[in-house]
Amino acid sequence: MNNNQLSDLLDENWEILEKSKDGKLVPAMRLLANHIENPRSFVTFAGETSSGKSTLINSFLGEKLLPAGAKPTTGTVTWLEYGIAKERRLLAVNRDATIEELTREQFNALSERPDKGLLRLKAEIPEARSGFAGLNVFDTPGFNAIIAEHAEVLKEFLPESDMIVFPVSYKVGFGASDRLLMDLVSDVRKQFGALPVLLVVNRAPESATEDDKRIREIRLNAEDILHDKVQLQIVKSAMPTPDGESVLPKTDELWQTVANVAFSKERAQALNERFRIMIKSILQQRIDEIDGELAVADLGREATEELLEQKRSFEENEKKCYVIVDKYMDRISRELPKHFSRAAERLIDKAESEIDSANKWVDAKQCAAYIYGHVLPFGTSGVARDIESYIKEVFDQMDEELSEMADRAIKRLNDRAQTVENPQLRKLLTNLGIRIGQRVAGELASSAVRSVSGVGGVASGVGNLVKMGVKHLGHLFGKTFSRDVYTTIGKMFTKKAVQTMTVCLQAAVELAFFAWDACHWQDELKGKVRETVDGWKDKVISEIDTSMVADYRKSNYASVEECYKELVAVIDTSIDESRHTYDNDQIKLLKADSEKLAAAKNKLEG
pTM for this one? Predict the structure, then answer.
């Protein structure tokens, strides 16, 4: 079935579907219908600070909409939605879910200096270039190895993309930050699938070709880290006008390459298949809901008592899960400071080794600048990654135990369904098990369709949609209990660690670099490095003790609560239905609705 046929089928059954008692289903249906009518593609620009991302996007628009320059100009994610809206609008999407229309001046100011309430900026641009309607482009903050917030943004956006455009400046070459960023892209590809990467060598000289030594070096570096081939695009420098005004580069070939991937036939087919799967899931959810109503229609009080007992069982299970969370959070509280201290000691050893290997007659200030400007900042990121890995390992073990606990609760329900003598009650409990199983497996339509809205309300790319498919992802709701908390590892630990080290480095630079003894400066510098790192370690460990673990505990509590709230909601719906008296006309209508939905589902399977 093509997209128009899918849209018609959804419309034909809308009236029955919207009767669902699941408050999330109708909004999910509306979102899905919108995406079937307006298929979209999602491209994320990710690159080092001042690599020219904003200028490349401006060249697509044919105007200087996004601020661009030699200094870092993008302080937040800017979302460019092309060819959907009928009128141009510049918007602020706020963290409280409100949207404000902006002037051009306000838009530029927030792009460079976002306030705390801003989630992202959005520019809605009516289509001016044929063939690009539905293209969504994300201009991300310039990546810097020691700016944790920018790495966090990219970790959220890269998995949601259909394509990643990775600009590298020809003059600067493939630097340390590019390496770290491409490593992050590689990690995302390992976890979410092989997203296409377009490597753009930007601001190249007019004579540059793929055989250029610098361009070959950039490409080899990128492919070495990615462990895969990349598409390459060379964008030549644009000469300013005689009066010195900057000119946008020629990028038609670049954007045609983007369009070839984003709007490919294969992508359209994959997206159509995903839409079909999601509509089928919505129909099945409503069929199971109706079957549940029919199952309780004649049971009355017996059904109510049985369902209340099942609810108590799941609530007891939830309490045991909090005990499990406490056990693992207590372990982190005991062990994390030890892991961090060992990692900090390795950082000191690395710095001392660099100092010892420096020629004794090298200028002391040059060596100190290298240690404080490179070794310690980059080493801090390495320590943070080690700690993230440790915490994730603990979370994975906790997930396993939490999931086993949920499995036991569901098994008790299924066992009970097999042993009751009353066939109507058996049918009710079997239906309840199916509906809860949908939640556990992540097949519930409203849960699946939520993925379409992506991070912070941005629709995800087909890559993410297709990956969800019908296979089970993780555990409860298609995710592990603590999967949401994984992202807070970076936000809580990396951010704190990097910010604290930044303060320590600033203090050290201000106090230390006066006069160095020509014969003993290496020992003095090593002492200063140890003092800096020890001070950093003490501050971070104090933060771990006073707030970090408490935040982890709170986040995991919230995840468990959310999961069991969803499961118990299924039981509560059945309890409400069991207390309702159904007449013959209502039962006939329910059966007719179920038959119509089943016929629609058969069309999708045909």
Answer: 0.68
